[in-house]
Q: What sequence folds into this?
């Protein structure tokens, strides 16, 4: 029986035909759309196409945006442009200079008899120092609802009901905003915030050593916080019990009498224990303890009412409310901090124990930026936290930008602060800055860019592709794209490839103020210790681990082998022959040359490990290297370390561990060899040398000295150098410290990473500056050029789509033939086909 | 049916407790409260006192399972497990360790997840069924053979390849769609690429599965009867075979419907879509127990809901099935 093509089948084919026509129309429309101007792959709205906007990315959401807590580069790139500490770093020369301050702080040193010391010396020791900071007048905060007032002059949004707050989902839901002038009070307030028990500022322990009274304030605040918490808990319990007793309908007097009978003579004894709630000690069984607890808590309530009368319940409720309010907003203005004094509306003074020259650098960090108390009070209202409206999410500052959108799941947007006073672009720079066009905008008022859009890009490949398409204005350089972007010439200089150069992309490289090192645990019985044999072992390993090769293989040349703990450019860092590590390098033809592996082998012999044989076991010396991670990419890296140590007869065992376990091992001193790094907080050698200071040891003191290095001479010199201002003497001390630590070799100095940054031709005033945080206002964008080039680079290419459709169409023709043929088949043939299945 | 549903809900309670228990065990066998504190507080200058303060403020200072210092039932309730996990049964997700309200974040992030998952499901099912029908229609011909080969090839390729390849080809080379990103005001542009890639990566497996289902039915008596009645092959396939094959297809779809909210871990991470899939990854990376426990719990609840819905859907597509 043949199968006939009936009307429904014809209908199906009509549908297919119209479907194809619809697809063709869509493709035609798409092709026309491609000519309409806006690029299909543009990830931003068309309305932004020609606007003065800078496009950047972030891969990791900032954890905190509170200036008392933030302490990482991912956070500073936002809050550094919002909050303004009194000082800043010059954008081009990197010198320390005033930001909101009228000038650098006037520092006065006093002896213990309160006499001014003009020149500190060993004879006249400094007892305390005063930093007088005068801020500029007329600086205004960004518009913020915390400042908004009603016609009567009361703060509009400071006494909101929980129901009102529950209806708000973001700061934008508060319709009215206002501003106010920055005062010295705000700076003093923020310094007190460092001691806030619920903020957990990471610099509290450091600052408490120097700022007079900060340690005491932190203790006082912690105690006050605990008391308030206890008061709230007690009152809540009391009111709950009163409710429970009340619902039983008995009179208070009856209940009291009944309980008094139950307790009989022991009432006083039980009463004494009620606060401690130590029921188990007085009760013989657990059941008894539980009953006793219930009875006593009820008795507490009954007693409270009996003593004060039932009319006291509203008082308890009022007390509870007041305690809750006090807890929510810990009013720091009620607490004195003797080390910080507000002199007048625009001047404040910080009192330091002894002297601490590094304070000037801290004064350029957001930790010392102003925070308006109105904002903190606004955010502390009950219900705000539940709505995710907090200081940690919506910063309030006086800087050039404010955070207009905080959605770290996709985008964070910084908008020009309409109340920003404006600042002139620098009129001087470093040598070569003028030739690089970095002074073209000199004296022009900043900020230049209206808006900065940060998009979340967790994966490096899409980030790189979008940069090449012009949708990000700047980019770092990932390993996968290194060869596509950069070529290294014979002299080791990095140059852009022709493809990048044709696109007008610029490359800026610089050695970063950071170090990546390989540490030895000095407490370890094998690699630790200070006797010469142990030094020889570590020096031998330092020679064997060839960091020049490492940088070439694994970092594409993006680093410089370190000669000591101080990165280049840091005060005390010695250049040339004087600055090399003499135990690892020789000075040959005007440059350092790593000692031969033969020297390392000789050192191994002197260390007692001839040919790497451990005399105790008669076998190869085995060392353990604790590393985190463990991807395929890391394997080559680890094999490289193994191979290097194998050259001197050491068998290196890699112990892969997750980051948590690694931290634990470091805290317990269980690691033997490990790799760590450090980024400079400020440009002072103390910020690196403290990583080797004994009393800062990780195991004994929970400090940052992960190697647990503890050399008496080094420690003594550190104590002297720590608080000295830069001078020839200080430089000599630093050199001595570096020499001592180099001989001991608690670290293989590793390398100082180089940053490679790429910028499009429309990105102006690009310069790397690891220390400055308020970089955004200096950047300028040529939006017209960007718009033109983006359009040229991103025209949709439809041809492959047409070809694909054609292929599908061509494939369908024989299919239709097969179908038509099948229509002529008999039922028997159809059944036979089905049987084959 | 009501009794059946109530019974299933009651069965779900011990399952959810066990899920919570395992989540708690696994999480805290890898992360200690000290590790969590360090992760939240940062990497520099973290003092022991700051860690202790953080633990107290976030309730991680309590013992994990049993509080010997407490009295009576407090021995069990004043513990980390009770305080952090049991409240989930009231759907009180609480705050993440970074202070954010988890319930609010879930309500915000489920929409981008749904924006990908729904078109992926609807268009995907339509395409897979159509292709599977085509193969069944041309069974035992070169189209069928090459179609199956094509499916096997697609099945053999990692979804990561489709993602990276798709971004490279469609986004980077052809400039037809943004490589990544998301804009709630202009979702279509951003969803084209992840949806296309999602469909292609599921194409091989699903089409082969549907083809098998159709071929199983194609030799049954009712099909032979339909053909004997003189119906066209297309009508036989699209009306009779598809109608009967709907039972396994529908049940397969219904079971995943509730979990569409949970998003796709890989697609969301690669395309920068701020959905619940990427929320889970962020929670794990940040060692945020608040997020991890909430999302695992929500995932389990939705999975159980999916299974109950599947059972119920049987009764609609197959009148022979009765729930009792």
A:
């Amino acid at each position: 029986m043949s199968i006939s093509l009936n009307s429904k089948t014809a209908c199906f084919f009509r549908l297919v035909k119209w479907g194809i026509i619809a697809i063709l129309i869509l493709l035609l429309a798409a092709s026309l759309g491609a000519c309409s101007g806006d690029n299909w792959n543009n990830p931003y709205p068309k309305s932004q196409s020609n606007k003065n906007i800078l496009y950047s990315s972030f891969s990791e959401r900032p954890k905190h945006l509170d200036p008392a807590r933030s302490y990482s580069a991912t956070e500073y790139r936002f809050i550094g442009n919002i909050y303004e500490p009194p000082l800043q770093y010059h954008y081009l020369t990197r010198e320390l200079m005033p930001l909101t301050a009228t000038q650098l702080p006037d520092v006065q040193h006093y002896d213990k008899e309160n006499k001014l010391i003009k020149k500190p010396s060993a004879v006249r020791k400094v007892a305390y120092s005063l930093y007088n900071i005068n801020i500029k007048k007329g600086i205004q905060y960004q518009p913020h609802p915390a400042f908004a007032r009603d016609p009567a002059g009361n703060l509009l949004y400071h006494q909101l009901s929980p129901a009102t707050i529950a209806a708000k989902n973001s700061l934008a839901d508060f319709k009215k905003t206002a501003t106010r002038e920055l005062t010295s009070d705000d700076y003093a307030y923020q310094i007190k915030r460092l001691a806030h028990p619920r903020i957990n500022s990471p610099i509290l322990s450091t600052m408490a050593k120097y700022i007079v009274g900060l340690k005491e304030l932190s203790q006082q605040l912690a105690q006050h916080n605990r008391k308030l918490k206890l008061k709230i808990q007690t009152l809540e319990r009391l009111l709950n019990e009163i409710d429970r007793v009340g619902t039983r309908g008995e009179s208070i007097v009856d209940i009291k009498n009944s309980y008094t009978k139950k307790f009989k003579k022991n009432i006083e004894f039980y009463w004494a224990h009620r606060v401690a709630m130590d029921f188990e000690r007085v009760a013989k069984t657990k059941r008894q303890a539980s009953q006793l607890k219930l009875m006593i808590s009820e008795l507490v309530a009954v007693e409270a009412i009996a003593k004060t009368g039932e009319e006291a319940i509203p008082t308890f409720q009022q007390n509870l409310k007041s305690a809750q309010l006090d807890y929510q907003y810990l009013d720091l203005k009620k607490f004195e901090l003797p080390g910080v004094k507000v002199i007048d509306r625009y001047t404040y003074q910080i009192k330091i124990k002894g002297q601490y020259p590094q304070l000037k650098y801290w004064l350029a960090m957001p930790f010392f930026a102003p925070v308006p108390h109105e904002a903190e009070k606004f955010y502390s209202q009950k219900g705000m936290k539940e709505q995710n409206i907090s200081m940690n999410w919506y910063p309030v500052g006086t800087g050039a930008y404010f955070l207009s959108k905080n959605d770290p799941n996709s985008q964070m947007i910084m908008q020009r602060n309409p109340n920003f006073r404006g600042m002139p672009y620098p009129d001087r720079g470093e040598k070569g800055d003028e030739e690089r066009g970095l002074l073209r905008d000199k004296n022009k008022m900043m900020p230049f860019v209206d808006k900065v859009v940060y998009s979340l890009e967790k994966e490096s490949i899409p980030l790189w592709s979008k940069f090449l398409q012009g949708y990000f204005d700047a980019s770092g350089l990932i390993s996968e794209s290194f060869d596509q972007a950069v070529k290294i010439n014979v002299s080791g200089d990095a140059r852009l490839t022709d493809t990048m150069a044709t696109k007008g992309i610029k490359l800026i490289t610089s050695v970063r103020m950071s170090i990546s090192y390989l540490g030895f645990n000095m407490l370890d019985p094998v690699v630790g210790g200070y006797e010469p044999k142990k030094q020889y072992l570590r020096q031998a390993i330092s020679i064997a681990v060839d960091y020049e090769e490492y940088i070439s293989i694994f970092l594409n040349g993006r680093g410089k082998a370190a000669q000591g703990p101080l990165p280049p450019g840091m005060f005390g860092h010695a250049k040339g022959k004087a600055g090399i590590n003499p135990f690892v390098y020789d000075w040959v033809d005007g440059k350092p040359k790593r000692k031969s592996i033969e020297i390392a082998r000789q050192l191994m012999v002197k260390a007692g490990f001839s040919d790497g044989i451990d005399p105790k076991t008669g076998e190869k010396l085995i060392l353990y290297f604790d590393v985190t991670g463990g991807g395929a990419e890391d394997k080559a890296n680890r094999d490289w370390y193994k191979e290097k140590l194998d050259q001197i007869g050491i068998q290196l065992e890699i112990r892969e561990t997750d980051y948590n376990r690694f931290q634990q091992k470091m805290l317990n001193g269980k690691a033997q060899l490990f790799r760590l790094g450090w980024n400079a907080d400020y440009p002072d050698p103390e910020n690196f040398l403290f990583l080797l200071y004994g009393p800062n040891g990780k195991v004994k003191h929970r400090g940052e000295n992960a190697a647990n290095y503890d050399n008496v001479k080094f420690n003594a010199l550190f104590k002297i150098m720590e608080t000295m201002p830069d001078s020839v003497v200080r430089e000599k001390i630093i050199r001595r410290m570096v020499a001592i630590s180099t001989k001991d070799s608690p670290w293989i100095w590793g390398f100082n990473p180089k940053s490679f940054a790429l910028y499009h031709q429309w990105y102006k005033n690009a310069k790397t500056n690891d220390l400055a945080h308020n970089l955004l206002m200096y950047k300028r964008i040529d939006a017209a050029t960007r718009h033109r080039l983006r359009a040229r680079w991103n025209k949709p290419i439809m041809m492959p789509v047409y070809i694909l459709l054609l292929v599908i169409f061509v494939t369908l023709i024989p299919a239709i033939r097969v179908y038509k043929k099948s229509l002529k088949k008999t039922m028997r043939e159809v059944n036979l086909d089905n049987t084959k299945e | 049916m009501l009794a059946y549903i109530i019974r299933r809900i009651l069965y779900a309670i011990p399952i959810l407790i066990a899920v919570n228990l395992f989540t708690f065990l696994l999480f805290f066998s890898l992360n200690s409260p000290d590790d969590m504190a360090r992760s939240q507080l940062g990497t520099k200058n973290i003092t022991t006192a700051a860690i202790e303060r953080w633990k107290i403020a976030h309730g991680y200072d309590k013992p994990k399972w049993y509080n010997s210092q407490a009295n009576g039932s407090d021995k069990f309730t004043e513990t980390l497990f009770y305080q952090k996990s049991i409240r989930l049964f009231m759907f009180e997700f609480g705050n993440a360790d970074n202070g954010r309200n988890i319930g609010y974040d879930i309500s915000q992030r489920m929409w981008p997840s749904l924006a990908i998952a729904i078109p992926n499901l609807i268009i995907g099912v339509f395409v897979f069924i159509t292709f599977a029908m085509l193969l069944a229609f041309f069974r035992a011909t070169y189209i069928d053979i090459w179609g199956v080969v094509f499916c096997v090839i697609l099945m053999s390729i990692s979804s990561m390849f489709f993602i990276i390849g798709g971004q490279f080809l469609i986004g980077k080379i052809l400039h037809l769609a943004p490589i990544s990103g998301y804009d709630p005001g202009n979702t279509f542009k951003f969803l084209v690429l992840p949806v296309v890639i999602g469909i292609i990566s599921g194409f091989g497996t699903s089409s082969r599965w549907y083809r098998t289902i159709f071929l199983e039915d194609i030799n049954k008596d009712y099909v032979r009867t339909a053909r004997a009645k003189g119906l066209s092959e297309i009508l036989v396939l699209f009306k009779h075979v598809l109608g009967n094959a709907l039972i396994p297809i529908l049940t397969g779809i219904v079971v995943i419907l509730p979990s569409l909210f949970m998003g796709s871990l890989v697609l969301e991470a690669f395309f920068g879509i701020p959905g619940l899939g990427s929320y889970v990854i962020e929670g794990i990376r940040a060692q945020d127990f608040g997020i991890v426990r909430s999302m695992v719990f929500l995932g389990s609840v939705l999975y159980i809901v999916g299974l109950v819905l599947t059972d119920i859907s049987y009764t609609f597509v197959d009148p022979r099935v009765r729930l009792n």
User: Anything to note?
Assistant: Chain A has four domains: 7-40+797-836, 64-219+335-400, 223-328, 514-756. Residues 7-40+797-836 of chain A form one domain. The longest helix of chain A spans residues 214-247.
